[in-house]
Every structure is written in structure tokens, then in C-alpha cells.
């Protein structure tokens, strides 16, 4: 009984405070003059996230409440854009406001407006609350803003050069050949496509990024002191447990009282950082001895570019950029390859379509060692179309978060200007843009890769469609477009 009284007071106070904050934000939302969806919680509310993660039926239960009372639940779980496609904008128009007690989110799926927002990097910045977790190993290109971002961009962009792309091409072919050999020699069961493409992506990133090469199967390296874990295993654990990395301090994760799995991830973080330190020191020594040599991997190019500048990257910033390079490239690449394979397996007509191009471009050469990056990659338009179509409807990034910062900003949508208040999230709904029937046609939800070909003709000589600005933002856009776009495409 004594416990219920303070608990009741606490709950009442929380409910009252939530109501006050929601009312305050509602007043701000009304001034924008866009349709409003009221929600008692925001998408980043940790309590709500834990609730629907542990109890998945909560979301459909809320959505099924009578009189549309639970409509807000349709827009407040992470990744709702993928499930919703373009439906919300069919209902509300090209933009609407999700009003929550914590903040307002202006959700936009108008290509012209989105292009304008992505171009104005100083007016619409990345929300710190959503990107601070990326600083686990150090500040990096994806997490910084302003002049610091300009410095990171200047030093990291040249690292994604054609020499590195050629290395990506060669290693991707080598890994894919070994993966295919593994699949065709499998006498029992079915290959785990998602697992194997994750391995392929990890190995390509390791080689092209750091110069470490693995065999596709039984990838084992000798572990030398002071290490207790291979680089590959450390990197894999870090990348597949990123959420844990965001929630817990790195040094805390090795505490003896924590579960073994958490301690193992903590150890992987320490090992990964130690490996990066050793590699950076090695590259610096190599660069000092051979100043005129051109780097063949991302780390070498990054260190060379950094040392050539007066205000180069610190070691922590090198760690941070190497981490984000792996973080951004691993799961996205693995998912895109696995999903493309699944789509092709379900549609033999597209297998024939792509094989026609491969036979033309590759000729009679059956050895991947003979497949030249400079001559062949630019001609594989249908292969690129398959990648683009997969990213269009099944991409890893379903929205791009921005914020107005301390000043209000004007956004023009269909020739009408809207004033977005300070400290407001502005969400570019990329999934809705990629599924908009007005842009992609009535079959926008259908996987049809030839929509990316200007006009079907002679395989190897076709051209790709260039969508309207803001209509396709799988790699973001504007000044902050992903610097590794070409890298990932290869």
C-alpha cells in the first residue's frame, strides 16, 4: 500500500508532464500548417522501443484499437517506413508532422523538397542524438558537422579512388567465386545466403579497406600476442553487436559481473581498436619510407591524405573513420547482395536478362582473373540496374534524419512555403520516395530492374536512367552524399 502511493504520484506526474509537452509541441506543429498526427511517444523513446521489441504484438494491438485511437503506433516504431511504403503520404500528402511529447518530426516525401533539404547542409544538420553512438571509436565523417565535417570530408573522400575500386572488384570476384564453389559442392541442406553474403562483404571490406585477405571458407588467421582474437572475428562481433556498443560504455562491457556474451563483445572492441592502432602505425612507417607510392587500400590512402595535410586526422579520428567505413559497408552490402539473389531466384526472366549482358561483356573468358575492372565494370549496366532496383524497394536506409538546429528554416513543397520551427526533426522518407507511383509508375512496388535502363538495346551498350533529383536517395544526396557510393556499387 505504501508503495502504491508514490508510484501513483510518479505516474500521474509523468502523465501530466507528457500532456504538457505534447500540448506545447502541438501548438508549434499547428503553425507549420501541415497535417498532424499526435502521438504520446516518440520513435526514440527507449521505454517504448524496449516494450515493442520484447512484446512484438504491442504495435498491431495498438493499431487495431477502435475509432483510430492507436493510429499513432503506425508511425512510432523504428523502421515503420519500410512497412508503410507510400501509404502515409497517400493519406496525408507529400508531408505531415508527427507531433510527440519530446519533439516534432516533419516527414517529407516530395523529391524536390528532399533534394533542397539535402543540399542545404548548414540549414539542416544531422541530429546529434541519432549520431553520437557512431563515435564509439572516435569522431568520423558521418557524425561531425560544420568545419570539422569539411576537414574530414577533404581528407577521407580521396581515399575512395579508382585504385581502391579496382581492388574491390578483384576481391569481390575472388570471394564470389569461392562462395559459388562452396554452394555448388554442398551435397546436403540449403546454403544460408544471408550468412554467406555477410561473410563475403566482411572479407571484401577487410581486403579493400586494410589489405587483409581471407579465403571464403575456413577463414582463420594465426593469432599473435598480445591478441586473443583474430581481426576478422573481432570486427564481426563489433559490427553485429552495434546496438550494445551504443547503449554501454566500451570499457564497462568487460566487467566481470556482466554476461559472457557482453564481455565477449567488449573484448572484441578492445581487440579491434588494438588491431587498428597496429595497422595505422604500420602504414605510417610504410608511407614514411615510400612517400611517392600510391596506396592500394582505404587505410593507406586515408593515412597518406591525412599526413599530407597540416591539420590531418588524429589517431582517434582515423579509428572512427575506419569503424564507420566498416559499419556503413558491411550490413548494407550483405543485405543488398542477399536480397538481389532472392529476387533473381524467384524471377527466371531476369536471370536470362542479366545473363545476356554477362555473355556479351565477358565474352568467352571463364576465369575471373581475366575480367578487367576498367573495361568491363562500366558496361555492366543491367547488373547495376539490379542493384539499384533492389536498393529502391529493399534498401537498408528507409529514412534520412535531419534537424533545423537553433534557427527556423523554410521548406518549399509544391510551390508552397512552410516555416519549420527550430529544433525540429525533418525526416526525408526515402522508402516512400522509392515507392511513389507518380515517380516510378503504377508498378512501383514491383521488382523490375529494366526500369533503370533508358532503352533496352544491345547488352553492354545501354545507359542507366537518371531519376529526378531527390527521387532516389539510397546513398543520401547533396554535399553529404555517401563518399563510398562508387565503392559499394563495385
From TrEMBL:
Transmembrane segments: 234-254
Domain of life: Eukaryota
A GO term for molecular function: oxidoreductase activity, acting on paired donors, with incorporation or reduction of molecular oxygen
This protein's name: Cytochrome P450
Family membership noted in the UniProt record: Belongs to the cytochrome P450 family.
Species of provenance: Viridothelium virens
CDD domains (alphabetical): CYP56-like (cd11070)
Cofactors: heme
Region forming the signal peptide: 1-15
Sorted UniProt keywords: Heme, Iron, Membrane, Metal-binding, Signal, Transmembrane, Transmembrane helix
InterPro entries per UniProt: Cyt_P450, Cyt_P450_E_grp-I, Cyt_P450_sf, Cytochrome_P450_monoxygenase
SUPFAM superfamilies on file: Cytochrome P450
Binding site for heme: 482
